[in-house]
Write a structure and sequence with these properties.
Elements lengths: L2 H21 L6 H32 L6 H31 L5 H4 L5 H54 L1 H19 L1 H21 L5 E2 H19 L3 E6 L2 H4 L2 E2 L3 H12 L8 E8 L2 E7 L12 H13 L5 E4 L3 E7 L10 H44 L7 H19 L1 H24 L1
Parallel strand pairs: 2-4
Antiparallel strand pairs: 1-3, 4-5, 5-7, 6-7
Length: about 450
């Protein structure tokens, strides 16, 4: 146990001693004070350390954050059984061993049954409050931890995504300048047209590079403009074929992916009028394919691999679906996943997170409501029993609220932690998993 906990128990013992000594003792002398202090210290430390040990053991084996329902059920059972044993032990030491006001037979008779019952309810009240406090502290700690972890994950993902996007500017500019330098020597007039077209294309690069996704239609239109730019240099040596359905044009891909892949086709393959390079862009199911006939040119220096690697990494940050690469002796093909929704819009994932957060809030309120009900029961019922026994003259009407409220409390516990709620949670989770699987299969 922590030193702070021990100090709290000592102060509790002293406060209880002064309260009972000043208001419930007719003989106010040193002997009476010491007996009261001994009894208060015994009750405080036995009940305090006993319940503290139970709480710490359950925290290690069944943390609130990992097994909330199991922990709540075990807490209720352990509170009732533990306090029943601890209170009987303290009362036995008080009345039989220390004060010697009762024999063993008298202590376990009906005469002391009401006293034990009253003390058990007081102990239940205190320990229920402590367990509820432990739950709220654990919930607060877990919430803070999850918030920090999510912020770190989001910052890391954003930084990685920004780093990948920032590769596009120098990559595109470097390759375009290489083409321009070649055209200046080969055909100065075409170089001028290329420069004018390149400024339009680079404007698109600047506009789209900060977006996570663009429509296939936008990317195709840009690719056609870029292909016209390439035709300026290669003329009949390169052919471009576009076969994308209108339905697929409304899907999404990562921006500048086609431009990077078209660059790779030109960079890694030779193209002549006698052996033209044919590049085909078409939709196949839920993928956008870029295929070219394989005419590998000898590389003077090793390729950096920025283009394809960049696309693969950007897709990995947006979806679980992979970019597929097919290569044979005759062709080279890259398959880009076409997504059905933008992740930066109000996506299914964000909606599910909001729903999960709302459900967690509702769950916390339900658990707090149950503990409030339990604490109220532990406060009011002993008070009603006390009033009934001192004013009822043999009419024990307190059993009606004890049993009625007790059944309601048990029903409340069953509703919050029992089979009914568990079954609902299980079915909701199954439906959500099916929806998520269906969504992941569509994007």
């Amino acid at each position: 146990m922590k030193r702070k906990y021990t100090k709290i128990l000592l102060w509790t013992s002293l406060g209880t001693t002064l309260f009972f000594f000043l208001f419930f003792n007719d003989e106010k002398n040193l002997h009476t004070f010491m007996i009261t202090l001994l009894l208060s210290t015994m009750y405080s430390f036995v009940l305090g350390f006993g319940n503290g040990f139970i709480n710490e053991y359950l925290n290690k084996k069944f943390p609130w954050s990992e097994a909330t329902r199991t922990r709540a059920v075990l807490s209720i059972i352990s509170i009732i059984i533990g306090n029943f044993i601890l209170v009987y032990f303290c009362n036995f030491m008080n009345y039989v061993v220390i004060q010697k006001t009762a024999t063993i037979e008298e202590f376990f008779s009906q005469r002391y049954g009401l006293t034990n019952w009253f003390m058990i309810n007081i102990a239940l009240l205190i320990t229920t409050f402590l367990h509820a406090k432990s739950f709220m502290e654990e919930l607060k700690k877990t919430s803070k931890k999850e918030v920090v972890e999510q912020k770190l994950i989001a910052k890391s993902a954003n930084a990685q995504f920004e780093s990948l996007k920032n590769q596009l500017d120098p990559h595109f500019l470097f390759n375009s300048l290489n083409v321009l330098s070649s055209l200046i020597d080969e055909n100065p007039q075409q170089a001028q047209k290329f420069t004018a077209s390149m400024s339009k294309i680079y404007r698109y690069v600047l506009e789209q590079k900060d977006k996570e996704l663009v429509t296939v239609e936008e990317e195709i239109e840009f690719a056609k403009t870029y292909c016209n730019l390439l035709k300026t240099r290669f003329e009949d040596s390169v052919d471009f074929i576009f076969e994308v359905t209108p339905e697929d044009s409304r899907m999404y891909v990562v921006p500048l992916s086609l431009q990077l892949l078209l660059e790779n086709c030109i960079k890694h393959n030779f193209a002549t009028s006698s052996k033209p390079l044919t590049i085909k862009i078409f939709s196949d199911g839920d993928t956008l394919c870029i295929e070219n006939n394989l005419q590998v040119r000898e590389q003077i220096k090793e390729s950096s691999g920025i283009g394809l690697t960049n696309i693969v990494q950007r897709y990995s940050l947006l979806t679980k679906r992979n970019v597929f690469i097919e290569k044979s002796e005759d062709y080279f093909k890259v398959k880009l996943p076409m997504l059905s929704a933008k992740p930066n819009a109000v996506s299914i994932q964000s909606v599910d997170e909001n729903k999960a957060y709302e459900k967690a809030q509702k769950r916390v309120k339900e658990i707090k409501g149950f503990y409030s009900n339990l604490i109220s029961y532990c406060i009011v019922i002993p008070f009603l029993i006390f009033i009934n026994l001192f004013t009822g003259h043999g009419n024990h009407w307190f059993w009606f609220p004890v049993l009625g409220w007790g059944i309601g409390l048990a029903s409340h516990a069953f509703q919050v932690f029992g089979v009914g709620e568990s079954w609902q949670d299980k079915k909701i989770r199954e439906i959500m998993n099916k929806q998520n699987d269906k969504y992941n299969g569509n994007i």
